[in-house]
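A quick word before the example. In earlier lectures we treated sequence and structure as two separate objects. From today on, think of them as two lines of the same record. Here is ABC transporter ATP-binding protein written that way.
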Amino acid sequence: MTTLDIKGLATGYGDLRVVSDATLRVDSGSVTALLGRNGAGKTTTLRAVAGLNKINAGTVTLDDADLSRTPPYRRARAGVGYVQEGKRVFGSRTVEENLLLGTYAGRDRARGRELTEEMYERFPVLAQRRKLPAAQLSGGQQQMLAIAQALVAAPSVLMLDEPSAGLAPAIVGQVLEVINDLRARGLAVLLVEQAVDFALAAADRVVVLNVGRTVYSGHADDPDLRDAIQRAYLAEE
Ligand code: ATP
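And the structure line, produced from the sequence above:
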């Protein structure tokens, strides 16, 4: 059992404070969706968990390990995977090279090679196109590659920033299937989404961030969920 625990997180960009109190947890075999309006601080929260933004207050722990002050590569090796918004693959590099780069983030290269073969089985289109530059893949295929690139590092937690953004509806369904599969395989998934319907279809737990603070936290089976989310979106600072 793995738990990513974010408590009272404060972070931002230099002197600009964007997040003042983000609190949420993600358990293995479950999906937590982090919702909130544009600019609420969702991406900034993920960046701070990955180690890309400095944590000014609060803690990020993965099981017993406090990661709040460790550099990004150590967090990746500890099991924190991060798929940034907008398909961050290297377009001029082949599919294969992108996956190889993903294995470098993990703690075990041999395991990374095994996982790469697993990714080719799981996403046959990536196997077919392994020698092609990633830029030649469709948007949906690039999103799958970005997810596969994170998975070959063998994360225990996977953070996905708006994985459905800009994709055709049929592809969005495939992304949802991948998320369901990750949950079934025991990963802890932290999903940032603008698309509330997509998030609710995927999530076990829902957290709403409003102006950098967690203002709602509940279970997806809460009968009052949509109203509660609506109220949380409208809550003033
Ligand atoms: P969105 O869905 O629009 O990305 P979000 O909740 O993910 O929303 P963030 O991207 O975390 O929001 O942005 C929160 C605030 O931080 C915004 O006001 C934004 O302008 C600011 N911000 C984001 N990136 C930077 C940056 N590199 N430098 C300075 N300020 C930034």
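Notice the following. DSSP finds nine helices and ten strands in the chain. We will return to this example when we discuss secondary structure assignment.
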